[in-house]
Design goal:
FAD/NAD(P)-binding domain, Enolase-like, domain 1, five-stranded antiparallel beta sheet, 21 strands, 32% helix, 24% strand
């Protein structure tokens, strides 16, 4: 074991966890020439690379191609078919992971100036971390320890091996009958993907509708699409037990009309994720947990502001958002605030944080929707543009969905946008920029958008806003002026 006084084991910052939050924290620290160590007990890249964003989007792409082939007549193709080899589909998913792995690798981060250490980290005190027989001392610690899927204690669930976002990617055979438990983003994405690949999917959600954080009209569009693709959507249903009779697995649900039994081959549990904060002695570090198990942080992402102020937390372990880009956003504040306090500190800013649910059509959101604006008593105006009017959408046979923009009453300042559309995740970027940099609907309308493109939907939404705010008195005067000139 190296001596505590050894300069080789003394750091400006130690990040624990090499998912998105830890990777970005350590990268920023190294970029400003701090001595930084990144400790990971498993593989660099974390959940996003191995069990989250990357594999799910790879699977969704294959499912989308299958859907296009099945709907070949829509594109004027008389005959087309496909034979799915699910094992090969999953092999491609893992090939995609392998191709992206170097972006998060030990080799890359070592070249960037980060010391990467594989092992289980033990935080001894706010300035000491033990790992792999070494005792490291540091000015600052960043906890980027991630989250894991929640498996509810439903009677009988422990007798089977349910699928979660962690073990789903080990499947080699397509389930004939799949239950997806949960109607949030992960549940919805996987529901549609597996249905398109050929599973008979029943989606079970306890709430009255899917995508509870979205507005009613948005959730209705997605539910209607699922039903049109053969998914059975069962909302207002509480899973009460799992049983196996004669080798047949069944989920028993309590519904408004009584109990219902649903047979299945596999069940995917997608009811949420909890921070990986069990097994830590946070009390000795001056760290508190929130009611949901996430690490309590202040406005500067500090987890122990009342006892040293040198331990920070970011990513899924801190919440409140469980997105890779949110983790990266928080990581900047952790690194900069840790390394430059007391010279300079920055309050974390979530005002313009977008997110996307990668169903088909996609659902993209930034700022407030009607649901959150009403809950907070924020006055707003709504402008909508139907994607069925967009030339490019019609040309692509994807003419469904909408752009919905919330603005300050009587003004063009944007306070929130929701888009349900093919490529919604790309379309939202213009609104993110508008909200971040303070330009509104007038400037979006005055910006040239290439024709025919999907992003023209933003311009037409701005045009609808302009029509609703046309200066009627001035227009009447202009009508008289032009009549006089005739």
């Amino acid at each position: 074991m190296a001596a505590l006084t050894s300069k080789s084991d003394r750091y400006n910052l130690i990040a624990i966890g090499a998912g998105a939050a830890g990777l970005v924290t350590s990268y920023i620290a190294a970029a400003v020439k701090a001595k930084v160590a990144l400790i990971e007990r498993q593989k660099m890249g974390g959940d996003c690379l191995y069990t989250g964003c990357v594999p799910s989007k790879a699977l969704i792409k294959t499912a989308r191609i299958v859907s296009d082939i099945k709907n070949h007549r829509r594109y004027g193709i008389k005959s087309a078919s496909c034979e799915i080899d699910f094992a090969e589909v999953m092999a491609r998913v893992h090939d995609v992971i392998k191709e992206i792995e170097p972006h998060d690798s030990v080799e890359r981060y070592t070249k960037l100036g980060v010391e990467c250490i594989n092992g289980e980290a033990e935080v001894i005190d706010p300035h000491t971390v033990r790992v792999g027989g070494r005792t490291l001392t540091t000015r600052n610690i960043v906890l980027a320890i991630g989250a894991e899927p929640i498996v509810p204690g439903i009677p009988g669930m422990d007798k089977i091996k349910p699928l979660t976002s962690e073990n789903l990617w080990e499947l080699k055979t397509l389930p004939k009958r799949l239950i997806v438990l949960g109607g949030g983003p992960i549940g919805c994405e996987m529901t549609q993907a597996f249905a398109r690949l050929g599973s008979k999917v029943t989606q079970v959600e306890m709430s009255p509708r899917l995508l509870a954080k979205e507005d009613d009209d948005v959730a209705a569009l997605i539910a209607a699409r699922f039903k049109s693709e053969g998914v059975r959507v069962l909302t207002g249903a509480k899973a009460s037990s799992v049983s196996t009779e004669g080798g047949v697995k069944k989920l028993i649900c309590d519904t408004a009309t009584g109990k219902e039994s649903i047979e299945f081959d596999e069940i995917l549990v997608a009811v949420g994720r909890r921070a990986r904060t069990t097994g830590w002695d946070f009390k000795k570090l001056g760290i508190e947990l929130n009611a949901n198990g996430t690490i309590k942080v202040d406005d500067y992402m500090c987890a122990n502001p009342n006892s040293g102020g040198n331990i920070y937390a970011c990513g899924d372990a801190a919440g409140p958002y469980q997105f890779t880009h949110a983790a990266s956003h928080q990581a900047w504040y952790c690194a900069v605030n840790a390394l430059f306090k007391p010279l300079k500190r920055f309050k974390v800013d979530y005002r313009v944080l977008p997110w996307v649910t990668f169903t088909d059509p996609e659902v993209a959101q930034v700022g407030h929707n009607e649901q959150t604006a009403k809950a907070l008593g924020i006055p707003y105006e709504v402008t909508k543009y139907g994607i069925d009017d967009l030339d490019r959408a019609i040309a692509d046979s994807e003419a469904h969905g909408q752009v919905k923009v919330l603005t300050v009453p009587g003004k063009d300042r944007i306070i929130g946008v929701n888009i349900v559309s093919h490529n919604a995740g790309e379309l939202i970027a213009e609104y993110v920029a508008a909200m971040k940099h303070g330009f509104g609907m007038n400037k979006i309308l005055g910006t040239i958008h290439s024709y025919p493109t999907w992003v023209e939907a933003n311009k037409y939404a701005a045009g609808n806003w302009k029509k609703a705010h046309a200066p009627e008195a001035a227009l009447k005067y202009l009508a008289k002026f032009h009549a006089w000139r005739r």
